[in-house]
Fold:
Amino acid sequence: MEIQITCPECGSGINVLPSVSATAAKCDVCTHIVPLTFTQNLVDGKLCDCPVCLRKDFYQQKDFNRVIGAALFIFAACLVPWTYGLSLLALYLLDVFLFRKLNMIAVCYKCKTIFRSVANLSEIRDYDHEMNDRIVYSDHDFQGKPLKH
Ligand SMILES: [Zn+2]
Ligand SMILES: [Zn+2]
Structure:
């Protein structure tokens, strides 16, 4: 498993590999130290507890750059008057054929840490907007359980 922490001080990405002996990661940009707690599960590639914030709530998403995706969409939308909407159709087909092949990543709702090559990815649910709002704005802890209505 590869882990990319978002530095709480400057927002830079810090890459770490799970290891039971690792207790902190240092930001290369601002030298901030992020304390880490790695469980044996994480070392084995299983995502159960976030090493940064110790929460159990994660979502999965495609591993592609959202900025590029948004730029492509705007570009295709600008071309609509000349292509009669075919540019959006082309973008849709590109999304289906190209982005579907991209790997999935898991992300911690609370601290936005990114996990790649997760062994138990199938246990991790898709992004839930309501869960995100409750975790980020109300500091609610779902303990890894899905949202119930
Ligand atoms: Zn930093
Ligand atoms: Zn976290």
Q: What stands out?
A: The longest strand covers residues 2-6. Residues 7, 9-10, 12, 27, 29-30, 32 surround zinc ion (ligand 1) (CB under 6 Å). Residues 69 and 95 are 9 Å apart (CA to CA). The mean pLDDT is 89.
